[in-house]
């Protein structure tokens, strides 16, 4: 395949940035999207140009590092995948592909397609934990029974990889799916009950402080989430916050 | 609790609460309007009751006005905040791939409804207030002939095709607004997904049937008088 | 006596750890506030260590190259974590976990360390559940287990196919609590580029901020390396793109011995490579072997027909299939340890029976599992005379519940539906058992410098059993290091803050800066990846699943020549004061180019086959690995400049509690 790429180039946080066109040739349909980017970068390095900076690490869809907005969608047109799992068979010969960073005020661009998602970390610092010492002197793991249903639901919420596709896709750049998933994981388990009220209050307060937008329930986040995190988690977070305040 | 309504989620609840109230009001408004199709007398009776009963006039009416104002003002505030949450826009954004047009354009359907409400206030509410509270005529009777004035006034307003046209367009926008708004309000107030499925079907029916009913009433009076 | 002192405590195996803990020096809480610890790497080992040390009261700084500690590559571990809980009542015990691990490691690990690992394993599960890790549960609400390769009990705890992710998020949550308290200062998007020694002790590091390029000095009373393994020396591996050996290699160059570099695990169930552009390989959890059956066609005609697309694998009858693991190893069947399964796949493919275009793939088939579960489900749901379709549907649902995310991942990559057609798999580099040499305290040969998790060599010998990496990482971080480091730090309560404006820091920083400047000014003709790929090819061809003396000698020469060329001709674009991935990568590849040669040298010296290290000269008549009594030692290499000059120190391995036998899974 031969493709035209329109890629956002921005030297650093202070640069204005612009879209630049590139051409790549002989792209195999079996390549992953990032392997296609590798081809482009190898080409740029060999011609003495600056390669395109982009975040990536595990390349198997679990670390949550990769973060491209491809043809107007977070992680591109496929469903249930991260950018690294997106394959070139989703595109046709001669296509023009627009590649931009995840955009949100709370995710400032570091360089090209690399953005700073530390806002997510700060939200987790605010309450994304159960206050238990790591001494190992806790009760036996089977001492508290947890229904399979609750464990499975908690697991589904915990599957979030923190990539930020929800924020990137949301017309309001809202982080509620992410925060909802984190709140839900603990809210669903008995271990999380003790601190539930403080946790949801603190995490929501930090989320608001970071400058994410409001949720207007468009559902874009759920569709674009590579891990299929359900909107139900947002509803649960809303319930939890109400509960914490009454 | 004071901090609650300042938080992003607290505001969602507030939007949802005002929406519930407005949706309930809409249903009640529709119920009275539909009477005009079947029985002018019943419509007159109901209108007179609503227009003169103290609890409606001095309790529900202010609450309604507050609800409408709150829903609009908070809607605008949130829209501005949400726009600010993304400073640099995407060069290419395929919103249709993951969300409905209605959900992405609540502000525009809302603005259309607001424009209609202004018209509606000029048409009905201001004359009503003027008659009742400035001229002090609480009788609800026609000035120059027998019977109540409400049905007469109603049919009179649907004579002009331009007004009827505006009315129809406004209710199309209301339908679009409700298509997303109904289920959105339930999602915001944290209703769990199990109940949501049934609610969603009900919501779709509500969002289409109620505005369509209002449109039908307008057309009925337009063509029958 | 050897220069290596493992410091294994005296006493009976069972009591060593308890006695040891009872007698070490402790630091009082008020003094802990005055002591700083640096942790490099925030995976399971680093993350759990950082959280625990901070909880104890030390001031901790963590470093990771990712944008968040939560993204460390531990997150990619799928299958599970072992623990001797014996919840299933199938005869598991601390001793049996210890025994399985030592045997699985082909009797090349240190007894006392492994026993301690087995001992604390149960605590890990308690700890993680308390932290809110959503392990799989059965309908009664109790924790569920699955079985893994190389063992005869079900002791593996799991969270769908994302156990590593959930455990790491657990450790990260423990870190978050300490970050919120100000006890951990995280330095994300930072890379450690050297260790700083003062008076022979590790007293700090030089790090580079990967966003701004700023070179920073950080001091501490102890430095903990938890930066994972070096599988990326092969270029293609299941490791993350950024996984590297740099932290381990830098301490090696400053005096930490590097042990058993040739012990590499080649994981049997990975998605085969599809072309030259391939940037990394994807692992499919070993848990798949619980239900999947591995086979290749019996007849060469069928192999050819399949490769040419004339036949589909589902066209072959049972008689036309060779379930070679079940044939060769009837006792363990498809659940033989990883090294055995990988070599068996290579043996079949080398013999020409590979089933894809590259000839490097075997089938992993779920048809009989789907059938088996389908019949079982039909019984449970009281469906009599269920149709074949119904049985398939019921069975597929169970398989989906167990492995759904893995199947989906496979389908996304390969574009084939594994519910309908067998998966294709092939071994890939996955884990490195070798690493920095540490004593019983997990301290390297540099005083005050520790290595934990995959970065050290200690617990897995020559081969690691499935679901043991997560166990070791968390055991080191939560339960071992926090004790042993206290013993060392108790002598530092009067030291006070370590200043960074000293000649030692000056020298280390200068060295780092000079190297960066060299890369940027070199303006050679080849990209960093060019060299990395070349190195990877040498490693895979000559130091891969099977090795021989001639190949290893060639590898040493070739890597040495490649390294020379790298330093002459590498091209790194950009500047030092910006986000520059090529620059970061250049430094990592430079270290891989040295490690690779030491790796080959270690493999050449080890004239035996053990675990993941298979020397063609040393095999039984049936082609099984042949261990040699005289190689029952740990090779610990001391840095002396060029890898060829490295000096070998041996730590003899003594087995007092376990009989060294031939490792048979037949």
From TrEMBL, chain A:
It comes from the Bacteria. The keyword Iron applies. It holds the Pfam family Fer4_8. Residues 151-181 form the 4Fe-4S ferredoxin-type domain. The keyword Transmembrane helix does not apply. Keywords: 2Fe-2S, 4Fe-4S, Iron, Iron-sulfur, Metal-binding, Oxidoreductase. This is Succinate dehydrogenase / fumarate reductase iron-sulfur subunit. It comes from Cellulophaga baltica. Belongs to the succinate dehydrogenase/fumarate reductase iron-sulfur protein family. One of its GO terms (biological process) is tricarboxylic acid cycle. Transmembrane segments: none annotated. Its cofactor is [4Fe-4S] cluster; [2Fe-2S] cluster; [3Fe-4S] cluster. The lineage of its organism: Bacteria, Pseudomonadati, Bacteroidota, Flavobacteriia, Flavobacteriales. InterPro entries: 2Fe-2S_ferredoxin-like_sf, 2Fe2S_fd_BS, 4Fe4S_Fe-S-bd, Beta-grasp_dom_sf, Helical_ferredxn, SDH/FRD_Iron-Sulfur, Succ_DH/fum_Rdtase_Fe-S, Succ_DH/fum_Rdtase_N. One of its GO terms (molecular function) is metal ion binding.
UniProtKB/TrEMBL annotation, chain B:
CDD domains: SQR_TypeB_2_TM. Keywords: Membrane, Transmembrane, Transmembrane helix. The chain crosses the membrane at residues 55-78, 106-126, 164-185, 205-223. One of its GO terms (cellular component) is membrane. It comes from the Bacteria. The keyword Iron does not apply. NCBIfam families: sdhC_b558_fam. This is Succinate dehydrogenase / fumarate reductase cytochrome b subunit. It comes from Cellulophaga baltica.
UniProtKB/TrEMBL annotation, chain C:
One of its GO terms (biological process) is anaerobic respiration. Residues 532-665 form the Fumarate reductase/succinate dehydrogenase flavoprotein-like C-terminal domain. The active site is at residue 338. It comes from the Bacteria. It is found in: Cell membrane. Residues 36-470 form the FAD-dependent oxidoreductase 2 FAD-binding domain. Pfam families: FAD_binding_2, Succ_DH_flav_C. Its EC number is 1.3.5.1. Keywords: Cell membrane, Electron transport, FAD, Flavoprotein, Membrane, Oxidoreductase, Transport. The keyword Glycoprotein does not apply. PANTHER family: SUCCINATE DEHYDROGENASE 2 FLAVOPROTEIN SUBUNIT (PTHR11632), SUCCINATE DEHYDROGENASE FLAVOPROTEIN SUBUNIT (PTHR11632:SF53). Belongs to the FAD-dependent oxidoreductase 2 family. FRD/SDH subfamily. This is succinate dehydrogenase. It comes from Cellulophaga baltica. The lineage of its organism: Bacteria, Pseudomonadati, Bacteroidota, Flavobacteriia, Flavobacteriales.
């Amino acid at each position: 395949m031969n493709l035209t790429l329109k890629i956002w180039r921005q030297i650093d946080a202070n640069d204005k940035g612009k879209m630049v066109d590139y051409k790549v040739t002989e792209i195999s349909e079996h390549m992953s999207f990032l392997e296609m980017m590798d081809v482009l970068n190898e080409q740029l390095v060999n011609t003495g140009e600056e390669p395109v900076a982009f975040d990536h690490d595990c390349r198997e869809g679990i670390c949550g590092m990769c973060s491209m907005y491809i043809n107007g969608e977070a992680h591109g047109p496929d469903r249930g995948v991260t950018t690294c799992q997106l394959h070139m068979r989703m595109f046709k010969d001669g296509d023009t592909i627009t590649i931009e960073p995840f955009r949100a005020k709370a995710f400032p661009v570091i360089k090209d397609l690399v953005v700073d998602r530390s806002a997510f970390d700060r939200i987790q610092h605010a309450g994304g934990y159960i206050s238990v010492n790591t001494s190992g002197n806790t009760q036996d793991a089977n001492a508290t029974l947890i229904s399979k249903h609750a464990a499975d639901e908690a697991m589904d919420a915990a599957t979030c990889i923190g990539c930020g596709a929800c924020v990137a896709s949301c017309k309001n750049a809202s982080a509620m799916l992410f925060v909802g998933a984190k709140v839900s994981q603990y809210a669903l388990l008995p271990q999380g009950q003790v601190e539930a009220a403080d946790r949801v209050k603190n995490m929501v307060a930090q989320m608001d402080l970071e400058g994410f937008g409001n949720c207007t329930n468009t559902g874009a986040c759920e569709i674009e989430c590579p891990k299929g995190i359900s909107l139900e988690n947002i509803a649960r977070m809303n319930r939890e916050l109400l509960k914490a305040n009454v | 609790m004071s901090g609650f309504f300042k938080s992003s989620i607290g505001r969602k609840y507030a939007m949802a609460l005002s929406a519930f109230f407005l949706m309930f009001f809409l249903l009640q408004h529709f119920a009275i309007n539909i009477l005009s199709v079947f029985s002018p007398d019943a419509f007159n009776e109901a209108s007179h009751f609503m227009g003169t009963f103290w609890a409606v006039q001095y309790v529900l009416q202010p609450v309604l006005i507050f609800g409408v104002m709150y829903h609009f003002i908070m809607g605008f505030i949130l829209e501005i905040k949400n726009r600010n949450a993304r400073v640099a826009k995407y060069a290419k954004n395929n919103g249709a791939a993951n969300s409905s047009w209605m959900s992405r354009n609540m502000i525009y359907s809302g603005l259309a409804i607001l424009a209609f409400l202004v018209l509606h206030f000029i048409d009905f509410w201001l004359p009503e207030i003027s008659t009742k509270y400035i001229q002090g005529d609480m009788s609800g009777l026609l000035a120059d002939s027998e019977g109540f004035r409400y049905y007469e006034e109603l049919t009179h307003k649907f004579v002009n095709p331009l007004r009827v046209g505006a009315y129809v367009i406004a209710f199309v926008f209301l339908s679009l607004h409700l298509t997303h708004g109904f289920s959105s309000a339930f999602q915001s107030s944290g209703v769990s997904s199990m109940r949501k499925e049934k609610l969603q079907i009900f919501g779709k029916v509500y969002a289409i049937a109620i505005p369509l009913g209002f449109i039908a009433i307008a057309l009925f009076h337009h063509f029958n008088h | 006596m050897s220069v290596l002192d493992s410091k294994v405590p005296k006493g009976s195996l069972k009591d060593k750890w308890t006695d040891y803990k009872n007698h070490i020096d402790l630091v009082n809480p008020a003094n802990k506030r005055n002591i700083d610890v640096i942790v490099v790497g925030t995976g399971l080992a680093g993350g759990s260590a950082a959280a625990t040390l901070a909880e104890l009261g030390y001031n901790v700084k963590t470093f990771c190259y990712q944008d968040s500690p939560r993204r460390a590559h531990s997150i990619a571990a799928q299958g599970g974590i072992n623990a001797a809980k014996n919840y299933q009542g199938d005869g598991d015990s601390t001793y049996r976990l210890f025994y399985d691990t030592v045997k699985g490691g082909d009797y090349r690990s240190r007894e006392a360390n492994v026993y301690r690992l087995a001992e604390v394993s149960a605590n890990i599960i308690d700890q993680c559940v308390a932290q809110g890790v959503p392990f799989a549960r059965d309908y009664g609400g109790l924790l569920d287990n699955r079985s893994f390769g190389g063992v005869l009990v079900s002791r593996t705890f799991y969270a769908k196919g994302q156990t590593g992710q959930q455990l790491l998020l657990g450790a990260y949550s423990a870190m978050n609590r300490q970050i919120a308290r100000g006890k951990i200062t995280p330095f994300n998007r930072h890379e450690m580029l050297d260790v700083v020694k003062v008076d022979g002790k590790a007293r700090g590091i030089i790090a580079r901020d990967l966003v701004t390029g700023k070179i920073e000095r950080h001091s501490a009373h102890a430095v903990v390396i938890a930066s994972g393994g070096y599988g990326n020396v092969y270029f293609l591996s299941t490791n993350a793109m950024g996984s590297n050996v740099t932290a381990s290699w830098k301490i090696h160059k400053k005096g930490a011995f590097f042990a058993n570099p040739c012990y590499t695990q080649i994981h049997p169930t990975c998605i085969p490579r599809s072309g030259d552009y391939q940037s990394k390989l994807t692992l499919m959890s070993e848990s798949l072997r619980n239900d999947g059956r591995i086979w290749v066609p019996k007849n060469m005609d069928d192999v050819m027909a399949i490769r040419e697309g004339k036949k589909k694998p589902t066209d072959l009858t049972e008689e036309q299939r060779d379930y070679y693991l079940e044939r060769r190893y009837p006792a363990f069947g498809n659940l033989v340890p990883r090294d055995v399964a990988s070599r068996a796949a290579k043996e079949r493919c080398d013999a020409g029976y590979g089933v894809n275009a590259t000839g490097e793939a075997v089938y992993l088939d779920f048809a009989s599992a789907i059938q088996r579960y389908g019949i079982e489900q039909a019984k449970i749901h009281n469906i009599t005379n269920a149709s074949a379709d119904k049985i398939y549907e019921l069975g597929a649902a169970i398989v989906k519940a167990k492995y759904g995310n893995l199947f989906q991942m496979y389908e996304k990559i390969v574009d084939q539906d594994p519910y309908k057609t067998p998966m294709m798999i092939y071994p890939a580099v996955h884990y490195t058992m070798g690493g920095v040499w540490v004593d019983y305290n997990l301290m390297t040969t540099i005083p005050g410098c520790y290595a934990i998790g995959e970065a050290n060599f200690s617990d897995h010998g020559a081969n690691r059993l499935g679901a043991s990496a997560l166990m070791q990482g968390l055991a080191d971080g939560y339960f071992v290091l926090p004790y042993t480091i206290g013993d060392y730090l108790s002598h530092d309560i009067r030291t006070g803050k370590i200043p960074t404006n000293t000649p030692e820091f000056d020298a280390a920083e200068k060295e780092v800066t000079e190297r960066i400047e060299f890369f940027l000014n070199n303006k050679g003709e080849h990209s960093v990846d060019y060299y990395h790929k070349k190195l990877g090819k040498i490693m895979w061809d000559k130091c891969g699943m099977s090795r021989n003396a001639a190949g290893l000698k060639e590898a040493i020469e070739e890597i040495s020549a490649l390294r020379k060329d790298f330093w002459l001709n590498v091209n790194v674009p950009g500047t030092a004061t910006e986000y520059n991935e090529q620059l970061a990568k250049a430094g990592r590849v430079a270290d891989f180019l040295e490690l690779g040669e030491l790796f080959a040298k270690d493999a050449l010296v080890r004239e035996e086959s053990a675990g993941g290290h298979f020397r063609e000269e040393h095999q039984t008549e049936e082609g099984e690995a042949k261990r040699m009594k005289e190689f029952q030692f740990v090779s610990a290499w001391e840095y002396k400049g060029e890898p060829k000059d490295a000096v070998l120190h041996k730590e003899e391995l003594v087995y007092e509690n376990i009989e060294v036998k031939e490792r048979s899974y037949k």
